[in-house]
Design goal:
The complex is a heterodimer of chains A (114) and B (132). Chain A has 114 residues and is mainly beta. Chain A is built from two helices and five strands; from the N terminus they run E-E-H-E-H-E-E. The chains are: A mainly beta (114), B mainly alpha (132).
């Protein structure tokens, strides 16, 4: 059973443009559980966790490609995703209703129930 | 709830397959040393070099981070912060062909020939006229 946070969508557009974002603020998303080596900016402790999109940050070159001197194009949509501490740490969370925001690229996210 | 107790705790262990050593969020950690210190001149030069190279588009911060991650945890025991930085910068510049290993070797030999005290130079000891 997942624990999802409350999200108020921002009252302003993304600070950087996003051509065709797949998700919108408020959408429930699950972080992928990829194990590939390389330069990955999606923290291990969030993989497989479900949160809500808090905002769209904009489109950016993929850092996983930039790290190896490639273009990272086409740009990928970057989202700020909000998780509850209960969702991340389970019963070990000191205050399960507290939340954590992390910026995660679209190719690490899939639609989730919620 | 069962998900947290079963799969999550095992696949989140420090030695979980696929977890890179640097991706340590949530793992037990020691105390933080809050002591501050001044930077040596060579450290400031490393900082300037890194900003200059990134501004010129020779690599991105992602390339630097990748190089740091590839060093492995032992580098974080044996090298200082700016030693790791210049190592990562050097690796990226070699990868992008800014200079060759042969050229770098020759340059390092030339700098070493200046003597062991060359690296002790400080801003206090430098005269503006001498910068030309």
């Amino acid at each position: 059973m997942t624990s999802l946070p409350h999200v108020d969508p921002p009252a302003f557009p993304p600070p950087y443009p996003s051509a065709a974002p797949r998700f919108a603020p408020g959408d429930a998303v699950r972080v992928a559980t990829g194990h590939a080596p390389g330069h990955i900016r999606t923290p291990w402790y969030l993989r497989g966790r479900v949160g809500r999109v808090e905002r769209i940050c904009g489109d950016f070159a993929n850092p996983e490609e930039l790290a190896f001197h490639r273009s990272g194009l086409p740009p990928r949509a970057l989202y700020r995703v909000r998780f509850t501490m209960k969702e991340i740490w389970g019963e070990r969370a000191e205050r399960g209703e507290d939340t954590l925001d992390a910026e995660i690229f679209e190719h690490w996210l899939e639609a989730a129930e919620g | 709830m069962t998900r947290h107790m079963s799969e999550s705790d095992s696949d989140r262990s420090p030695d979980a397959a696929g977890r890179s050593w640097h991706d340590m969020g949530g793992l037990p950690a020691g105390g933080i040393n809050p002591a501050e210190h001044d930077f040596a001149l060579w450290e400031k030069r490393v900082d300037a070099l890194q900003v200059l190279c990134a501004t010129k588009g020779l690599y991105t911060v992602d390339g630097l981070r990748r190089a740091l991650e590839e060093m492995g945890p032992q580098a974080f025991e044996s090298m200082t912060y700016y030693e790791r930085w210049i190592s990562a910068v050097t690796k990226n510049l070699l990868e992008t062909g800014v200079f060759t290993t042969e050229e770098l070797n020759a340059r390092m030999e030339a700098v070493a020939a200046r003597g062991a005290t060359y690296g002790d130079a400080s801003i206090e000891g430098a005269s503006p006229e001498g910068e030309t």
